Amino acid sequence: MNLNLCITPHGRPILEQAVDDRAPGALPLHRASALREAFETGVGAGLLCLVSSELTAVLPPSLGFARDFASAYLTQLCRTPELEGTAEIEEIAAPSREELGFLALQAPPMKGLEYLNADVLASCWQDLDQRVRAQIRAHPGGAPAYLRELNPLWRTVGHVTFHLAENKRDEAYPFAFMATYASRVSAQGRVQHLPLGRALQEHAGAKDKAALVALLTPVQRASEQSAWVKDLVETGGVYQALAWAPRQAYQFLKDIPQLEASGIIARVPNWWKMAAPPRVQVNVRIGERKGSALGASALLDFSVSAALDGQGLSKAELEEALASTSGLMRLRGQWVEVDREKLAAALDTGGKSNAMCAAEA
Length: 361
Prior knowledge:
Elements: E1 3-7, E2 13-17, H1 29-41, H2 43-50, H3 61-78, H4 97-105, H5 118-138, H6 142-150, E3 160-166, E4 175-185, E5 191-195, H7 196-202, H8 209-225, H9 227-235, E6 242-244, H10 246-254, H11 256-262, E7 265-267, H12 270-273, E8 281-286, H13 296-300, E9 302-308, E10 311-312, H14 315-323, E11 328-331, E12 334-337, H15 340-360
Parallel strand pairs: 3-7
Antiparallel strand pairs: 1-2, 3-4, 4-5, 4-6, 8-9, 9-10, 11-12
């Protein structure tokens, strides 16, 4: 079903079914019905539906305009200082009358366009603000949980993200680091990340000082927990794209819990996101020969080896792992976690156990 936004002579936005349902932006019947019911409930409910379940949908121009308007409100909400600390959010101020009037002039053709003006948009903003703040007050998880439930994309807007990516063109520095902040959600439903240094430019005015402090507070908290974050803040490296060696990347990966506890979002390669990141492990096998029973012969049938994903390492691979000091090494085409000290200790313990078993036998 294809729906269009219309403005009544009284300045109320409503939805009407389009004559041609084959035009771009048609929604499945159940989603179109839900959107229509939301607008019948109230303008605020309808706008919320557009920036939640229909945030990434292809919409006709009139509904796209309404979604952009609602997105502007949520973007401002996400940038509100101290959003994390309370369920009682102060009123989110609407753009100036001049800005709203200019925005009305940018609206696409729609039925009742002549009734769309700054006053109508101000009323829509107020309806949306009242509904959102009431729902946040009633939500047990407060604003962060509410935004995540509304649409996970909104939880990242207004937050700093630390990115770690592979840089396969540089063997000495095979990783890249960058800190960004999520400025908004685009019309295509993608979070727009900008270098963190841009925040200093965008919030340079005195009126934006509180927003800048709120944005950078998680970075300050992280610097109190992590020496390398503190160094980046003090040297200004946090505002730059950096090439990193494996040791630096490993420090980042190991500190992810502290970063997230500080309010920073971490984006890392998929191989580290797994429940058990690839790592070299020590395998001990006892009594695997057929027909062996638990006794002297079984104890003598004792082997210690290092393996990756269940596959034993060659002598050269094991020597390379034991020589690694960075915590990460490239092995068989993938990055794996290597704790050289634990690996050596496990192999040494296994070797001693084997010798003791042989002596006792």
